[in-house]
Every structure is written in structure tokens, then in C-alpha cells.
Predict the structure of Peptidase S24-like protein.
Amino acid sequence: MAPTLRDGDVVLALPGATVRPGELALVRWASRPAQLSVKRAALAFDDGWFAVGDAPEASTDSRTLGPAEALGPVRWRLWPRPGRLHAR
């Protein structure tokens, strides 16, 4: 999720809260049920979200894995640069 997030960043997800288009979200794909990822929720469908990385050339996301289940929005980075994460 660079440049928004980097490896090792600690974020706060709000499981069960409403995810809005453009927000970062904690997601899971049906083809990788044990893996949780943070991606940008781009477009909602009946069967999930089209979720993408902020660096498309370096991201494995809905373009490869299909619709994602959005578990909740990620609105805050807690460490190392605390602050609110904004929607695009």
C-alpha cells in the first residue's frame, strides 16, 4: 500500500463498520481466506468490493484475485507516524 502505508506500519481497523468507496479497508479474498490485507475499497458489488493497492504495478489485488470481502475500514495509523488515513 505504499506510499500510504509501509511494511511494519501498525493500523487500526474497525471490524463491522461501514466501508466507503475510496477508504482503506481490511479485506480478505475467497481464494486466500487465511490472508488479511489492507487495500483501497474502490467499488462495491453485490458479491464484495473491487479493492486495489495504491501502487498498481506492485499490488496483488482484485484485478488478480476478484472481489474482496471488506471486513472494516482502516482509518488510523498508530505507528510509526500516527494519524488519520484519508479516503481518496
